[in-house]
Design goal:
The complex is a heterotrimer. By secondary structure, chain A is an all-alpha fold. Chain A is built from 16 helices and 1 strand. Chain A is flat and about 85 Å long. The model of chain A is unreliable at about 1-5 (pLDDT under 50). Chain C is built from 10 helices and 10 strands. The chains are: A mainly alpha, B mainly alpha, C alpha/beta.
Amino acid sequence: MSDTHAESIAFVRESSLPPAAPPEKVGGPFKWVKDNLFPTWANAILTIVALYFLYLLLSGSLPWLLNGVWNASSLSECREILDGATGACFSVISERWHQLLFGFKYPSDQYWRPTLALVLLFLAVAPVLFIDLPRKLLIFTGIYPFLAFWLIWGGPIWGPVFALLGVIVGYMVYARLVHNSFAKALAGGIVAAAIVWYVGGIIGDALRPARPLLEAVPSRDLGGFMLNMMLGITCVSLSLPIGIALALGRQSHLPIVKGICVVFIEFVRGVPLITLLFVANVMLAYFFPPGSGVDLFIRVVIMITMFSSAYIAEVIRGGLAALPKGQYEAADSLGLDYPQAMRLIILPQALKISIPGIVNIAVGLFKDTTLVSVISLFDIIGMIRGPILASTDWNGVYWELFLFASVLFFIVCYGISQYSQWLERRLATDHR
Amino acid sequence: MTTLTDPPKESFRPSMLLSDTRYRSITFQVIALVLLIAAIWYLGSNLAANLRAAGLNISFQFLNNPAGYDINQTLIPYTSQSSNLQAAWVGIINTLLVSFLACITATIFGVIAGVLRLSNNWLVRKLMAGYVEIFRNIPVLIWILIIYTIMTAAMPAPSAFRGDDPASSMMLGSFAFTNRGVYIPGPIWGPGSTIVVATFVASVIGVFAYRRYATKLLYDTGRLLPMLWPSVVILLVPTIVMFFFLGMPIGLDYPALKGFNFRGGIQIGAPLIALWFALSIYTGAFIAENVRAGIQAVSKGQTEAAAALGLRSGRIMNLVVLPQALRVIIPPLISNYLNITKNSSLAILVGYADITATLGGITLNQTGRAIECVVLLMLFYLVISLGISMVMNVYNNATKLKER
Amino acid sequence: MAETAQMQVSDEVAIRINNMNKWYGAFHVLRDIDLTVHRGERIVICGPSGSGKSTLIRCINALEEHQKGSIEVDGTLLSSDLKNIDKIRSEVGMCFQHFNLFPHLTILENCTLAPIWVRKTPKKEAEETAMHFLEKVKIPDQANKYPGQLSGGQQQRVAIARSLCMRPRIMLFDEPTSALDPEMIKEVLDTMIELAEEGMTMLCVTHEMGFARQVANRVIFMDEGQIVEQNEPEAFFNNPQSPRTQLFLSQILGH
């Protein structure tokens, strides 16, 4: 078009320009290296430092990893095989893997039971994690806790069966009454379940077989990575409903209810988990009726559940606060009462927003289950520090064992956090 | 003139306790209160019964009894004849020491890693992502154990430094890394050293004063003085001049091998280093994520608007991006500091004498006063946590964006 | 109106774009753009979304990099040299669709930030200038509030004032009204019209056709990264030549 303004400014394009290829320098691997590794002097130095660091890391660890010995029966034998060369002694893992995974007391011919429970776990959590799966699978999720309990602890099958039966009856009563009044439904459900449990207890005692189908394993025999998984899963699942209740309580307009929840949440969040585990270890037994003898596993579960429910409550409170006020007003204007508004309108949305936060708490809690080794439970760290490193065969094999435990935790935690990120992206698009 | 009349006053009926909004909330609260009292009473009576059965009582008398155990890393006077209370104080100060040190280094690690994660250098970005993912997804307890093992199993014993041709030698002739800890030179304060320190303090104040002056000059006259190199000069030159002028009053006490161990200088025990380094590098990974999120939270439009106004990238960072990013970064940063303090209770694993290891560990085991010890322990952490969250609330309210 | 506007245009060239091309990866966003803007000209750029109009004006003050061709602003050739970029940016003001006010600074601080740190204006003087322009956009009483406390229209007027505080010779507007509620559009457009009447050189990406008729002395229609048609507003609206322009106008004007 013209440069001088005196001419007419009118311009009409007669033919469309086809898209042209970008100029040469835009693409190509050389350009990528230049743009991403050496764009400026400072960056080039950074790249070289990073490369050097990487070299140090790999040159230090690779020979050790690749030259590992997998089939010796003790550290001294390992050293003989290596004959002065650098190399890991992974034979500790090939010899003691069962202790690291299941603890040292779980009967070894029964390892298939926790393994099966783990496999079934994936089936049970799948419908919770992936909203696209058929909702019918949730029935199995409901059955799973009782099944897993029976698989891991063994003993007569009647206990878990009646416990499940009580829950089913309670839920049916609740579902019957809930359209009428939430409070009545809840009370009715609890009473119905309690009756079934009581009756079931009597029948179960009568039916106790001489030799149960699955050999009973006391909970002090549980250990290894299995114990970490069990504590993590049990406590997170138990703390979800408690966390929701605490979050609602903290949002409530009733000063006393709110006060109780605030004090509980702030107290639990203010102290380290290890002090709560001390409570479980040395103090909690005093608060039970004399002679009840609640075992350490259950006491630990109680304290960790308290711990995680306070954190989950805070996450859910964030979700509740993030909902626009209009949602509450809309629910009120439709004439819904408080339980209805919460159950039908507020919580489904608030929980959806909170899922990534809850998953983060779950990952943190799972890592924190290693703390039980401090109060002499033999989880995977307890096993490493206790029986394995103390044995004469393997005294001094630190790195291989720590590496093994680290890899296990990394796989689980990284997997969960990748899931959480996937979910976050997915929820973000859902809202649009 | 109002024509509205009050609603007819109904006489109170018991059913109104549930149906009338005025009484309903009171009813619920009374129920909650009754349940709470019942629970406390139930737990309390169980406690009393159990204590009676075991022949125990609740008493804090043991705090005044001699502790009877040694602590190797103390900042305040302590012997095994000191009271349990004094042991607890040693523990408290050690907890605060390791938390403070770890907070500083974790922030440094975190900020560097967080900023580098946003670098346009592909390799550095990936390395930092690796650091963050690896450290975040493995329990801190394992990290503490790994680093403690490095300190104790992989470092040479002091005896390795002995002889004419020692297996190990001191770094720069003044730092010794041994399996008992790290020995670093300690300062010796000669006469006149206070003047040197005072000069340095004055220089620090001077740097701030200079920066204020430079900003004021810019505001008043539009003249922008250089900031970086005058700050460095003001910070260092007077102190160095004063140091040599007074005949080098501050000397260094170098650690040296005497007998089986190092003497002189400052000893930082292996447990402290393991805990300090593990907590910093673990929490650093979390802080890195906060920093990254904070910087990314400042929308691209802000950077563009500042660029469109003609600001250079350094100024855009200082004047526009950082003030907004800090608002996002600081609250989680403070809760990470809180996590460091709470995680420092894992000191008990490596034998560092923090409050959990003294009061909640040895004292508890020796006196058998489980309830008293655990309660005091919780109380201490609670005070710290509530104090920090109070500071955080003040900060949040002060920096809240004004919106309509 | 069009005649009076025509008279203010001088022969001096404010922006000269020659054969400019830009790619996003392999996607050819701007194709052979040739455009000369004279001092005092007011140009409205319209076109379907994704046609490259925003990218075009963002290239002018180097918020986006172009890969081929040249851009010259007030005689300064835009290059990768920071000095050139600084110079052009301090001469060219820009308003964004989402205002992009700095939420942590007050209105007054938003307006004085760049004058103080870029133009090195003494603070007092910068504040006076800022108040002057805030009065001009008719919100001097909001000076000590924060952006979040203002309505969208007010925020956009502050954004205009913020740009004006740098005393730019050219103003770029990137869909300044499309994030606003209808009743707020007018107050922003009024501010822009006032600016136009004072002879500011303006490039506006906008779909406000009324504004284009009233203020512009040239309307440019872009599609698929090319300038398809340009003309004086009367001719452009009453007698569009290209079928693509006709289609676009029929869609946007609803007849």
